[in-house]
Specification:
CATH architecture: Roll
Radius of gyration: 14 Å
Number of strands: 6
Oligomer: single chain
Strand content: over 45%
CATH class: Alpha Beta
Shape: globular
Strand order of the largest sheet: 2-1-6-5-4-3
Distance between the termini: 31 Å
Number of helices: 3
Structural class: alpha+beta
Number of domains: 1
Length: about 130
């Protein structure tokens, strides 16, 4: 079965919107219980990821750039894309960051969930 890029971008956008609105429930529903995130700050579990939203939204806005989908198995895909996001920094100035992201999505119990994500900061658009 060949999967549709726009379907997985839609799932990824739901994750971004949850970060933008501070919606822990939506974010929780999209992440697997064994989710692993690899970020500049280190490794992150699902609970660590949800903890980011304890005080509400963490981004002001975002824009998803070029993306590509790779099928890894019958019910597993890798979505890789660039994104520019403006992170909220409380009392500090908001900062815009370029990221290159790979998210692995797996179908578990008839539901697609994000099982892995790695964000790499970029310095220029490609």
């Amino acid at each position: 079965m060949k999967y549709d890029l726009s379907f997985f971008l839609g799932l990824e956008i739901q994750v971004w919107e949850a970060l933008k609105t501070g919606d822990k429930n939506t974010n929780s529903n999209l992440l697997s219980d064994d989710f692993l995130g690899v970020y500049e700050t280190g490794l992150s579990s699902k609970n660590d990821h949800l903890e980011l939203l304890k005080n509400g939204p963490i981004i002001l806005c975002y824009k998803i750039g070029p993306s590509q989908l790779m099928q890894l198995g019958p019910e597993t895909v890798s979505l890789t894309y660039s994104a520019t996001a403006t992170f909220l920094k409380n009392d500090k100035q908001n900062t815009e960051t370029l990221l290159f992201i790979t998210s692995i999505w797996a179908r578990r119990l008839n539901k697609w969930v994000n099982i892995f994500s790695q964000d790499t900061k970029g310095s220029a658009h490609y």
